[in-house]
Write a structure and sequence with these properties.
724 residues; mainly alpha; 3-stranded antiparallel β-sheet; two-stranded antiparallel ribbon; 22 helices; elongated
Length: 724
């Protein structure tokens, strides 16, 4: 790997930052950047592809062998404008791929490499991503050649895979299918600090307890992927660093063995760059002048010598032969004692004591002169921490096991946010089903849907319970990493069947009636749950005066306990659901903030979120049966009543006890309804009120019903990657 490089260039230039709900915005960081958002006011502006373009179909026509051959050739085609270390770009390409994928965090599933987001701010200008602009430019001729058949997201990760193959690793496989985004992601909270690499204390309640890092963050500093390679807050202490490495990698969905394998395998190849003055580097890409054409971190001391690259301030290779994937990392780390030293740029790093000349790597440019290897504080953690050391000793005793473990961990790192294996495309997709992929067997499609509906109708389940159970099953879906959703019916398995938000007792009673129907008809339980919810919506629409059939596509499967990684599902547990007007005592953000977050993860637009909220309220689906926000006397009918009441000036809205609001008759003062902030935000926020007014209009009763059904269907099918 090309180093966990931490840029030390000046970045702020006097910018004043304002706190935002999602952390610092790009405009906060770069207030002088061109405001292209003005183009967004006329609809969907950012995708330049034709409306009928489908990348997942386009990539199936890619010359897979050809592009891999071109990438292999690129690895050793050193360019004078950015010379390759030892004539091989492998380390740089691996670092690019690693840092693209490594921004993933499992708390909310955001980040990761599946969107090509490294091309945009803020990631393209993070200190930790210094010089990766050069890696992407080196890839441009290949992107240009293969065009629409390869996305940047796929290409960046494929380059890392091929780099490892070119240096002697048998990789576990590769799946294509990552479609590019075309503008910065504004819905990811990377932190609220107002400076890059701000002290870690900003992210922790207690820096000595890494588990207290603020969620959803996973990196120890603003602008880093993982940990500070010089130590906690830049203070070397391998034992302390190990604790932060463990927590950080756990938040990226990695266990101790995967963490040790990734650290060792990542640092088996390539080098870090600090043979110069890091403070002399120019500004990051987003702050650079127009003549820089997207390049950043200009180095006034750059020459055609690879040794003149400066990225992190840390300098040196980890192994004797940095262009070969071998056991050299373990040989040096455990074969020598190490002492703290400084790089030429003044960064903290470790050097071996009394190293043999033949164990020293040769110069990255002349290929002859022997140079001093180094280790970061995170590397020393692998030796000092008892658990990591035991794992490394296991690897040292079995090279084949290490290679396989690393290959699998690298595959997980680069594919974790792609969701189920059905999303993988190409000839190198592994046949093996992996637990972290949340496997779901294919469901049947040849059963009699009408017969299932007849049995559901006779099962004695209330309309509200049918709708609620289907909603709870589907609402876990996260578009960020394509986890959760109704497919698999994991609602009935641990841990979901015990989640407070799913009302375990009510859920068990409903499932006791639905499961026998699945057994009798050959339908999956997952399909029966969704079909029952659809029937509840259809009945409510009919009661409201509209005969609407809710679309249903069979084929969901049922997961088993053996297919479910119980621990990994904890992060999907809701602690708030604005659609069911529920907010747990443990929730740390406001109802409104968590409501918006859930809607965004479900892939809903503002209008879809609004219509679903209004419909769910009048259908009587609140958690625990509360009446908050149920602005109707016709509960169970799909009507506009929520929006009509919300916009009716016959009422006044008053704060009440325990965060509940009272809706009072303006003339008499009598309390007519109660509400929470998740209800009233649709009247107070100007954008949401504009949507609410549409659904309150007399001429939009039918539109409301049809829009609700469309949004409902979208949520029910959010994880149906086999349905277009």
């Amino acid at each position: 790997m090309d180093g966990n490089d931490v840029g030390k260039c000046p970045v702020m230039h006097g910018a004043s930052l304002a706190t935002t709900f999602g952390g610092r915005t790009n405009e906060d960081w770069w207030p002088n950047a061109l405001k292209v958002d003005v183009l967004h006011q006329h609809g969907k502006p950012t995708d330049p592809m034709n409306p009928d373009f489908d990348y997942r179909e386009a990539v199936k026509g890619l010359d897979f062998d050809g592009i891999k051959a071109d990438l292999h050739a690129l690895m050793t085609d050193s360019q004078p404008w950015w010379p390759a270390d030892w004539g091989h770009y492998g380390g740089l390409m691996i670092r690019m791929a690693w840092h693209a994928a490594g921004s993933y965090r499992n708390f909310d599933g955001r980040g990761g490499g599946s969107t090509g987001n490294q091309r945009f701010a803020p990631l393209n200008s993070w200190p930790d991503n210094a010089s990766l602009d050069k890696a992407r430019r080196l890839l441009w001729p290949i992107k240009k050649k293969y065009g629409n058949a390869i996305s940047w997201a796929d290409l960046m990760l494929l380059a890392g895979n091929v780099a490892y193959e070119s240096m002697g690793l048998k990789t576990f496989g590769f799946g294509f299918g990552r479609a590019d985004i075309w503008a910065p992601e504004t819905d990811i909270n990377w932190g609220e600090e107002d400076e890059w690499l701000a002290p870690s204390e900003n992210r922790y309640e207690d820096l000595d307890d890494p588990s207290t890092m603020s969620n959803p963050l996973a990196a120890v500093h603003m602008g880093l992927i993982y940990v500070n390679p010089e130590g906690v807050n830049g203070n070397p202490d391998p034992a302390r660093t190990a604790l932060h490495v463990r927590e950080t990698f756990a938040r990226m969905a990695m266990n101790d063995e995967e963490t040790a394998a990734l650290t060792a395998g990542g640092h088996t190849v390539g080098k870090a760059h600090g043979n110069g003055d890091a403070s002399a580097l120019g500004v990051e890409p987003e702050s650079a002048g127009i003549e820089a054409q997207g390049f950043g971190w200009a180095n006034p001391n750059q020459t055609a010598d690879a040794n003149s690259h400066v990225t992190s301030g840390i300098e040196g290779a980890w192994t004797t032969e940095p262009t070969k994937f071998d056991m050299g990392y373990f040989k040096l780390l455990f074969g020598y004692e190490w002492e703290l030293t400084k790089s030429p740029a003044g960064a903290n790093q470790w050097k071996p004591i009394d190293i043999k000349e033949e164990d020293m790597p040769v110069d990255a440019t002349d290929g002859v002169t022997r140079t001093m290897p180094m280790m970061t504080d995170a590397d020393m953690a692998m030796k000092v921490d008892p658990a990591y050391r035991a794992i490394c000793e296991k690897f040292m005793a079995d090279e084949a096991y290490f290679r396989d473990t690393f290959a699998r961990a690298w595959f997980k790192l680069t594919h974790r946010d792609m969701g189920p294996k059905v999303n993988y495309i190409g000839p190198d997709v592994p046949a093996e089903d992996l637990l972290w992929q949340d496997p779901v067997p294919a469901g049947k499609t040849d059963y009699d849907v009408d017969a299932v509906k007849a049995k559901i109708a006779d099962a004695g389940i209330s309309q509200a319970d049918m709708i609620t159970t289907a909603w709870d099953s589907a609402r876990t879906f996260r578009g960020s990493d394509k986890r959760g959703g109704a497919n698999g019916a994991r609602l009935r398995l641990a841990p979901q069947n015990g989640w407070e938000g799913n009302e375990p007792e009510r859920l068990a009673a409903v499932l006791a009636k639905l499961e026998p129907i699945a057994a009798d008809t050959g339908a999956s339980i997952a399909d029966v749950i969704v079909l029952a919810g659809n029937m509840g919506v259809e009945a409510a629409a009919k009661a409201g005066g509209f005969d609407i059939e809710v679309p249903f596509t069979p084929g969901r499967g049922d997961a088993t306990d053996e297919m479910t990684d119980v621990d990994s599902f904890d992060v999907l547990e809701p602690v708030s659901d604005g659609f069911r007007n529920w907010h747990a005592d443990t929730a740390k953000k406001s109802r409104e903030d968590m409501f918006l977050d859930r809607a965004q993860l479900l892939g809903l637009t503002g209008a879809e979120m609004t219509v679903l909220l209004g419909g769910m309220r009048v259908l009587g689906t609140n958690h625990g049966g509360t009446s908050h926000g149920v602005f109707t006397d016709r509960v169970g009918q799909l009507t506009q009543d929520f929006f009509v009441t919300l916009t009716d000036m016959a009422y006044v809205w008053k704060p009440g006890p325990d965060g509940v609001y009272e809706i009072c008759d303006r003339a008499t003062g009598d309390t007519k309804f109660t509400a929470t902030s998740a209800d009233l935000v649709f009247g107070s926020n100007s954008i949401l009120r504009a949507y609410a007014e549409v659904y309150a209009q007399d001429d939009n009763a039918e539109k409301f019903a049809h829009d609700f059904v469309a949004a409902w269907t979208k949520v029910m099918n959010a994880d149906r990657f086999d349905v277009t």
